[in-house]
Amino acid sequence: MTSFGEVAKHGRGWLPLIGLNALVGSAVTLALPSVLGRSVDAIVAGSGYTRWFVIAAALIGLGVLAGIVDAFAGAACVARTTAWLRHRLVRHVVRGGHGGAREFDTGDLVTRVSANATDAAQAGPAAVTAIAAVAPPLGSLVLLALIDPWLAAAFFGGVLLVVLVLWTFARRTADVSLAYQETQGRIAALLSESLTGIRTITAAGTAEREERRILGLLPELHRNGVVTWQILARSGAQAAVVGPLVLVAVLVVGGIELVGGDITAGELFAASQYAVLGAGLGSLTGVLGELARAKAGVRRAAEVTAIEPVAHGTLPLPAGPGQVTFDGVSVVADGNVLLDNVNLDIPGGATVAVVGPSGAGKSVLAAVAARLRDPSTGQVRLDGVPLPAISKHVLRSAVGCAFERPQLVGRTIGEAIDPHAVSPVRTLAAARATHAHDFVSRLPDGYFTSLRKAPMSGGERQRLGLARAWPASRLLVLDDAMSSLDTATERQISRTLTDDRHHRTRLIVTHRAATAARADLVVWLDHGQVRAIAPHADLWRHPSYRAVFG
Asked: What pLDDT, in 10s, does the model give residues 234-255?
């Protein structure tokens, strides 16, 4: 879980420098009025003012240097913290698997990782700046008390009003900042969803309606933005009124003290500058605004880092044919029963087709078999070992998965087939077995063709997805992974799967009767339950089974 303190502390390499620089800046700010006041008194006296001018010039130079260092250190700290936080967020999303990422929309996740992470990274510098900003007013109060207690009393009364303004601003702006970021995330989620289905939107002629749906949240974003600026403007106006009152109060008291001979002209000048510093607390609205945005960003990041990573065991797999056993497996999501007490014993080395009407739970069964999600109750075993007890490396080497719409990863076609770049021989063997080599060999650069630029149909992408899964040693799980293939290619790959010389178990989710007919067994699912397990020829006698294939 990510907290504000954890994010702030991560800038520890730069925060001490920022803090030290802030102290130097505060010291310069407090010393300069006193030095200038001494200069005024020296000018009135007609001697000794050169020394005070030199000291004042040195302090101004030191202040400028402190400002430069502060700008550099703050930017470096935010950049480093942003990079760390983004790595952490991405790691949690990826390691949380499908179950963890399912809690968030894609666009919302992108917003959290990009924009909100930058806001959250301001936590350390903003906190240090806010603390350091309190030093000049407190120091001014002490120094005014040394000049004259009545000056300090007038100053203190005005500062209390400024603090009240700041407290009200901080309390109101925190909620608005969070609402603004959440609305941004929702807009990004809608946009991402539309981009995914842009072809369907174009074909249906609903582009204008989709535009209205995405931009329908802009008024809400506008309202949050307006409220933010209203709060800032109101607080700024209040500070603009209270600030001069502090200065007037100090000048009135100082004037009376000067006439009475209790303070000098230089001390009155210094007192006026300290009064300005106290009134300058109103400038903290900008810092407090950064703190509010950082707090909102950290909160949204914490929701992502709360995703529990998928836990893996340490056990190896014993020698075995790839037998898969479902023991009382049920899957419940959002109150819906996706699988209901499934008990299966899939023989090792067999080709098993999974069929059923839409919503029967076929893809869920495949995901549970490959441990892409865990069951709510029950367990799945591979060659007698529960899937959660198997080490991650062993499990992913033993189980391969291919999907209807594979997401190909890598710079080249070759990397998409073999992300770990084990060997060119393995890449070529997988491509030939899945008939991906037929079209890859015709590309200008073959397996070195840029994945992003390679022209591919849906069926060709599916063949690359099959090739990526092909090296699995125990179990191949194909979730409608041949739906976009032409009949001839699908028959060739099905024959390759059936005659698999590696003798692996093949679990194939399909909507095609021909694929089910070539399987050794068919698992017939209906409403999350196993209705029957038998060869296709035996099940074909049932009208309800034939209806599954239309």
From this structure: 766 666 666 667 777 777 777 7
